[in-house]
């Protein structure tokens, strides 16, 4: 790990947890806002990625060799995209209504919106329950937080998960159409994620990594900080370490090597960036 003087947001990102506290001081509220901002930025990037994949998917409808297969998956893609747009809009509306007086009710309603969205996804395509990266990403616990900053975080987290599931779904449906070099790309995973961007000295940072769409034949490998991490059965590599005791901005490199849809070996490097803040 090396220390850096800048703190930039890296995407895509998975924030696996959010802070919880009975009472927040100014530093904690500032940290909540930092994580909320990161979640919202991550959501935007996931949405952009999904739009691009849908655009490429539509192009396959014009490809003589792929159009029949693409047409078979198109209704599900359009239905789930519409459900995503509707759910995100509902969460935005709840965010506009949020106040100290109704925060518990807003938290409960937002969690309900997310649950209904997932119901639509899995009713539209029951086979999505069998895709580890989609099924796992659809199971975060959303509680009724009784603190306004935490409810704001909850809404941002729910919007992120809605976009995350949608992006995973469109990747999966696209992979059902795009097959090359004898590889069946039947698993989708988040590229690189981290449990938090703002931590206290000595806290644990968890990193999750995988390739966007691949089969076991794609032979993906992941290294974090130049140490190879074993891939799990769900096609995701996970590792965790304690961050430095000294406050500051830090980075950790993540390298992913895999065989792409054209049968070419590719290596991608990502930089996990996080900030260690001084505790009370």
Share in β-strands: 15-25%
What is the 3D form? flat
Distance between the termini: 25 Å
Helix content estimate: 40-55%
Extended strand count? 11
Largest sheet: 6 strands, mixed
The low-pLDDT segments are: 1-23, 179-190
Cα-atom Rg, whole angstroms?
Answer: 19 Å
- From N to C, what is the helix and strand string? EHHHHHEEEEEEEEEE
Helix count equals 5
Structural class designation: alpha+beta
Mean pLDDT: 76
Q: What number of domains? A: 1
Question: Could you give a short description of this structure?
Answer:
With 280 residues, this protein is α+β, with helices and mostly antiparallel strands. The chain is 44% helix and 20% strand.
Q: What's the helix and strand layout?
A:
Layout lengths: L1 E3 L21 H35 L6 H31 L5 H22 L7 H6 L10 H28 L11 E2 L3 E3 L3 E2 L4 E6 L3 E2 L6 E4 L2 E3 L7 E6 L5 E12 L5 E12 L4
Parallel strand pairs: 4-11
Antiparallel strand pairs: 1-10, 2-6, 3-5, 5-9, 7-8, 7-10, 10-11
